[in-house]
Amino acid sequence: MIRDSKTTFIKNTELLVGDLLKFGIGDILPVDGLMVHGSEVMVDESNITGESKEIYKSPPTPYENNNPFMISGSKIIDGEGIMVVCAVGENTQLGQLKMKVQEESSPTPLQFKLEGLSNSIAKIALAASALTVSALLIHLMYNVAEGTVILIKLKKLV
């Protein structure tokens, strides 16, 4: 990291917007930024963008239509360079993605309808099971009153 024209080593959490960050092969970018110097930089952004191919990055020039934007969470596959830190923490692309995944969303109309349907099915199932148990109890009481249940048990014992 370069701050106040001095190269220093600091924790990723101490990076500030406007710092110059040196990167090289194997580094995973902790911040979003704009590459200002570099050569033959290839980046794997698959965990952020879903793009399976490596992406060529180069500093901005007035003559080329290139891609100088570096996204947090990207892995440097080849090359080295320097980038200006543009976003840190929750303000990075990776931070925004994590925030969207963690936030609770309100139930959709379909979820409300499915919940109502499941409640109705549960009530119907409860009523059907109560009727079944009642019918079995009535049948048992009838058999006890006739004495057939006791005779069946006596025959099994003998």
Radius of gyration: 34 Å
Q: Which runs of at least 5 residues are low in confidence (pLDDT < 50)?
A: none
Shape: rod-shaped
Number of domains: 2
Percent helix among the residues? 25-40%
**SSE class:** alpha+beta
CATH superfamily of the largest domain: Calcium-transporting ATPase, cytoplasmic transduction domain A
Q: What gap, in angstroms, lies between the N and C termini?
A: 94 Å
Q: Tally the helices: what do you get?
A: 4
Top-tier CATH class of the largest domain: Mainly Beta
Mean pLDDT: 85
Instruction: Name the beta content range.
Output: 15-25%
Show the helix and strand layout.
Blueprint: E1 2-3, E2 6-7, E3 20-23, E4 32-44, H1 46-49, E5 55-57, E6 69-70, E7 75-87, H2 93-102, H3 109-146, H4 148-157
Q: Any key phrases for this structure?
A:
158 residues; alpha+beta; Calcium-transporting ATPase, cytoplasmic transduction domain A; five-stranded antiparallel β-sheet; two-stranded antiparallel ribbon; 4 helices; rod-shaped
Q: How does this structure look, described?
A:
This protein has 158 residues and is α+β, with helices and mostly antiparallel strands. The protein has two domains: 101 residues, Calcium-transporting ATPase, cytoplasmic transduction domain A, CATH 2.70.150; 49 residues. 39% of the residues lie in helices and 25% in strands. The protein has four helices and seven strands, in the order ββββαβββααα. The strands form two sheets. Strands 3, 4, 5, 6 and 7 form a five-stranded antiparallel beta sheet that branches. Strands 1-2 form a two-stranded antiparallel sheet. The longest helix is centred in the C-terminal third of the chain and has 38 residues. The protein is rod-shaped. The relative contact order is 0.14. The model has no long low-confidence stretch (mean pLDDT 85).
